[in-house]
C-alpha cells in the first residue's frame, strides 16, 4: 500500500486545554449556580480556547456560532425551557421567505409536529405546510427523498422557501439534501430531536441518502440557516437512542479534546440520567468542537475526516448487517473499538488508553463487539470499506488514535495486515472469518 501523509491532530492542544480550563469565561454553564457547576466539574472541562467558536450563554440557553466564509455563518441554539414566543421568535428570524415546509417522521410527528407548526405559523405572513415520512435508517433512500421533492413541487415552493428538518439524523440528512438540490438550493433549518443529531449530524452541512452499496454515498454539503436544540425533546428519546448519541460525544474527547473525555469519565452517569445541566454542557461542548473543525475544513479535505473515528468500520457494519439493524451510534461504537484495537496493534497507543476507551463505551451502554449471529465476515468488511468515502486513488484511509488521549491521525500509511487482523479478531467472536 502506498504511503500517505500522516496528519497528527491537536498534538499541542492538551497544554492549552489545561491552561484554559480555569479561565475560559464562556462555558456552557455560565449561568448555572456555583454548586452545580462544581459538582459537574466545569472548571476541569471548561471550553478550550482552540475550539475557535464563540459561546454566548443566556439564562437557559447557549449560542454557538459556526464561522464560515461568504457570510454563511449560522448559530446553534442549545437550551431548555424555551418559552413559546421565544422559540417562535428565534426560528422565524431565520425564515427569509413566506413558505415553510416542515418534514418529520411518523414517530416524532405525534409528539412535536403540532408544536413547531404553531410556533412558525404564529407569524401570519408565513404559510406553513408539513410532511410526515417513515422513520428509520432503512427509509433514508431515493424513494423517500423524492416524496419530499414531490411535496415541494405540489406546494409550489420557490427559491425563497425554507425546509425545516424536525427529527434525528436521518431526517436532517434527507431534508438537507432535498434543500440542496431543490431548485438548485433553498434554505433549511435544523431542529434535531436526538442526541446524535444535536451533537453531530445537524451541524456542518453534510446531507445525503444511502445507496445499497454504501452509506451516505449520495449527497451534498449544504449548510443550514440555524440549528435549534431544545433538550426538552430528549425526555421522550428512547434509552437506546440516547446511548447511541453519546457515542459521538465520546468521539470528540478521543480525537481532539482530552479534557472533555476526562469530564465524560467522571459524569457519564449524569448523561445517562438525562441531567439537564450535564446534557446542555456536553451538547454545547460537542458543538464547539464540531464548529471549530467545520470552520477549518468545511468540505472534509483532511481535518474534518477525523470526526469519522470508527465510522469506516461502523458504516460497513450498518450496511452489511442491513440498514436499521444497528443504530448509527451503536455501529460507530463497535467501529471505535475496532479502530482503538487496531491503533494498539500498530503500537500507536498505550494499552491503558485501550482500557479507557472500552470502559467508557461500556459505561455508556454501547456495544463493543459483534453479536454471534452477525452476518459480518472478513470479505464483507473489506468489500464495504473499499467503497468508503475516505478512499482516495484506490487507497483506504482511516482515522486512528496515535499518541496521547485527544490525538489521532487520518492516514493511509498503516500496516494492512494490522487492519485485517483487527477485522478477523472482531468477526472471530461470531465465528465468521471468511477464508
In short:
It is built from 15 helices and 13 strands. The chain is α/β, with parallel strands linked by helices and 435 residues long. The chain has a 4-stranded mixed β-sheet with strand order 2-3-4-11, with helices on one face.
Task: Give a structural overview.
- The chain has 435 residues and is α/β, with parallel strands linked by helices.
- Helix content is 43%, strand content 16%.
- It is built from 15 helices and 13 strands.
- It has helices spanning 13-20, 34-39, 84-92, 109-121, 142-154, 169-181, 195-201, 239-255, 258-272, 276-296, 311-321, 328-345, 351-363, 378-385, 416-428; strands at residues 8-9, 55-57, 61-66, 74-79, 99-105, 127-133, 162-167, 187-192, 206-211, 214-221, 227-230, 398-401, 408-411.
- The strands form 4 sheets. The chain has a 4-stranded mixed sheet with strand order 2-3-4-11, covered by helices on one side.
- Strand 7, helix 6 and strand 8 (187-192) form a beta-alpha-beta unit.
- Helix 8 (239-255) packs antiparallel against helix 9, helix 9 runs antiparallel to helix 10 (276-296) and helix 11 (311-321) packs across helix 12 (328-345).
- It is globular.
